[in-house]
User: What shape does this take?
Amino acid sequence: MELKAIIVEDEKTSRDILKNYLAKYCSKVNLVGEAENVEEALVLIRNNELDLVFLDVEMPYGNAFDLLDKVGDRQFETVFVTAYNQYALDALNAHASYYLLKPISIDKLIEAVDYVSEIKEKENNLQQSVLKPVNKQVHGKITIPLQQGFEVLEIKDILYCQADDNYTNIFLKDTKKLVSKTLKYFEEILTENGFARVHKSYLVNVNAIVEYRKGKGGSVVLSSGKQIMVSPSRKKELLAFFR
Assistant: This one.
């Protein structure tokens, strides 16, 4: 994947060397700007949705850590590029993805870029997916994508899901979430957790049902008071939960 990046470095020669290396050996990096001090870097960071910042430690009028403090919460990864190895621990504490010493090793630079690329790809995949955690200690949860990451939901707190074209509304006890996935997608994930497709538009948490009312297909009443019609073709499947 492409990585939108900037270089923050006060020495022009060092910037040029890094630019040349990136252009020649790291084609996935799209360099969108350069800064030679903290203030210039802040402008670039605030005006671009960046994936990666190559960051020198020592700069005029502040250092790399001052810059990161001013940025606050950030979505980009950082690769420190410096001539001084005494900042390695500080870089680690600042959650740097990589620490490169000058003169820059091309192999290490490629390694750093590949590492960041892998991180961003995983983040992007999470934002496009609804996932069940694979760790047994977090059994009973799913995640739904958010713009800045994902939110973890307790499956037991979901009352029902309602189709909305290619989206799904997830209704919880006190709120609802709109997710850009089809109801069929959630049916495949949640069926093994006690959910039944009672209608083409509804997927219901069977544990939330407090009443079944007879009829051609009948209807179910949930603990929230919501009444949902049951399709005749789905009636047998639903009643099988209560034998």
Summary: The chain has two domains: 3-127, 136-242.
